[in-house]
């Protein structure tokens, strides 16, 4: 970076867009896992797509690396700056620009927090179905760059499935104006797909045209206790068949997750006792309240009659539904109740038929290394996705060993090492467990073609 | 192409895979629109992915262009060989290799006809939801390469939404083994997205892991007559709200389409009189027959009571449902009943609120050129997608003028020039009406990076 480069940025961009030195707040280089992060050379906070383009054109010319930041809630260190990088924060591009109920589209700037978008479209009787625990701080741009999943994938798909068009700035400052609203548009290579889920290494998303749906009139949540994982899978099949398109979430929690969350996380209450082996949170939504109630009650009755579920509670109000969701959404808070913060968090896809054996294998092999270590397992069973946290307070020096162990077991079970969190820096050493050499080499070819100077989030996912 | 190249292919590949000279059947260079097509230098019909890889490695070395063929039902001349090209026909890779009901996945070779796959998974009580009129001859590989849409997009999305993993051979013969079965797999760039809908210019799809769903127990079809397009859109909103996830198709036909199909296409019977301005085919599906019947009857009653629909008929059996579908599926047959085969066919996306004005504008401006010319309009209204055929039997010399006219009007209405058919050769001159210069240049960058010798379907979509 040449001497006067920061000054050149200052004069090229919107006044106040460039922060440096003491003006850089700690939040731009803060790791939620507590590891030290170098301070960036500058933080640039554009208000317009044109400023993003100007910034990248200059950085491309100089070969200056840039790391793009959304809400900083990612779990794979993808948005933390390396030494000498410039941070591009999207926090000032946070407007919902348009909501079109008849077309079923909302247009939002990339720095818009997810919850802000959710609440804005609710005013028009609509729903943006993407939802995850970090909704208050994560941004639409971050959701797109990581192809976020979350709680309603079973009904509405991943973020990718909710995107109609994207405006993107590529490494040399070119603006790809693809903010289209069509559901169907087969006109050559679908470029937006390249930028969804590629963690910002191919371009910076600046605005998105997103699918919105009529908000369900009624949403009801049940929490159920089940005696075995076999019964969880039978119950899932039964729920799919009887609820059809009304089934909007099916989340499973192993005993340790439910029990410890109820016992340790402040403000969380458990409506069912904590001794059951498995808990399922099930959500049904639709336009006909009587039907949703009747369908859900009938499902629970049948499941009880078949001895699939041991106990269950149904939400009776929005508040009680939110209280049940709060249990499932408290995974980060649960982690924070343990003193050793470097707990190992995993996010895997695998066949639902092998999930119980997978969790048991992790539990026993974790205990073989450290008898007091244990795994907390939960996740989106209906999507084939589990989250696993391994707690080993007494053996912090064995972090790498536990990490390796879980990835090895995931490989043995034919799973994916990242269902929704992405690769970033943290999982880079394990990428080859889920992608072939030829695939990784093809990714490199694309990166070199679109970012020949390797300035966008360099070193994330793979090294060039 | 060097002298002995065809012989080299013959010795490198499976015996019988290479046809040349008089062994090349006319079907490999037959245009359904009747235009002359040059005979390819050879037709290669591999049985294995390894043979596709060997073929491309040799063609890459020699710089020999290859055009890949599926069922040859495309509408944009994308699969017709240019002079001196080698045809890669996928017709011998046509097996459904695996159907896994519990995982909801089927694995099929690219040359498998769509209907063969549909029927195979039906044996296991499953449904592959992609469906279009060409089902008997189009192939899974062709569906993927064109991101086919069809009749159930409103509920299940485009082909892209139905793909979990792909095996692809790139231009230099590299095999990308991405045949994964996960719904969620965020492990770096999602390479498969590059090959879906890019019309074979970046790679050859050899096998696919496809999502399959429990087959609905009941499927019922209604055909309705409506007095105006405004009432069509109100009826669509009502159907979405009242049927929710049960609504699996909503197809609209302008009077000319319905009337002419009933009058001219052999074997098609019209259950409603032919004088109504608009006809809607609506399909509802689900696991509970009584509920589907009751919901559909209630919807039709309400719509009749609100004077939205003038007349309606409900299917009473699989046979009567198929008879109604046959009307909507006969667009190609209808075109063939006109003596002048070079009718101009369009496939556009636009806002549903502007569809009526769009169709009226085309009608009046077509008549201004030729008073006896007329437009036939129909399509997937629920997805924002219309098909338009302009018939101008008396003025065949004005083909280009009519084509230009419809694209101009599509541009004026902010529409996409290809909702589902793709660009191929036919629409290449109009690509810039739906994509920006920067987007097309980025497509070229990708093409050069993945196919530096420009051997895969060269000249389709754009020239390098």
From TrEMBL, chains A, B:
Keywords: FAD, Flavoprotein, Oxidoreductase. It comes from the Bacteria. Its cofactor is FAD. InterPro entries: FAD-bd_oxidored_4_C (IPR004113), FAD-bd_PCMH (IPR016166), FAD-bd_PCMH-like_sf (IPR036318), FAD-bd_PCMH_sub2 (IPR016169), FAD-linked_Oxase-like_C (IPR016164), FAD-oxidored/transferase_4 (IPR051264), Oxid_FAD_bind_N (IPR006094), Vanillyl_alc_oxidase_C-sub2 (IPR016171). One of its GO terms (biological process) is respiratory electron transport chain. Belongs to the FAD-binding oxidoreductase/transferase type 4 family. This is FAD-binding PCMH-type domain-containing protein. It comes from Bradyrhizobium valentinum. The lineage of its organism: Bacteria, Pseudomonadati, Pseudomonadota, Alphaproteobacteria, Hyphomicrobiales.
